[in-house]
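User: Could you check the structure of this?
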Amino acid sequence: MNALARLLAWLIALALVVLPGVALLKGWLASERWPLSRLVVAAEFERVSAEQVRSALAGHADAGFFAIDLEAARASLERLPWVRSAEVRKRWPDTLEIELDEHRAFARWGEDRLLSERGAVFAAPGGEWMEGLPQLAGPDARRHDVVETYRAAAKRLQGTGLQLSALALSERGSWSLRTVDGSEWLLGRGDPLLRLERFVRLLPAVLADGGGEIERADLRYANGFAIRWRQPEPPPPTPPQPVETT
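Assistant: Sure, the predicted structure tokens are below.
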């Protein structure tokens, strides 16, 4: 009986391996017999459109319920702009379920990319024109340092009447920032927040003495800083007056 039981178990295992291949060859599991006719998407579309999802899945869903490659379908969806991650599942008998998670932009990164709230750098058509986002820049490997420094710097500017609009870290490790009014501050290497905090503490006196708007502040000195004041715009030239002749 033991030998018979082992033989039956072996035959069942062999059938489980062979029958799916035979079914595919015979067309029993062909796409026209078991087509995917319904697409269910669990996502609140803000940047990704339903048309983009359908287009990304078109070549995969045609394979039918049994033959579709779910990993390949997921990879196609994750190549779409703004898609952070995707999950693809089958539901009997004819449904493909999609779950999408979109990137949410936190800042513009460099010249033509965006930085998400989770710290991912991604490209998106038209993203460089998004309004209201700060402009951050630096080596990709230091992006988390840039974000942390930006948040800390913005906090230190609270109460000054100035608002931070951009922060950059150069390849050589030098920091600089720009305010909404166009003022540029050079923070140098080392601890940029320490220099910024010292300057912000003295800013009311600096502005009172200068009597104008700062165009550029160089904070890289150990015991001070250098200020370049914005020059007032010259008045427009007076148009010539017509001369009356008699």
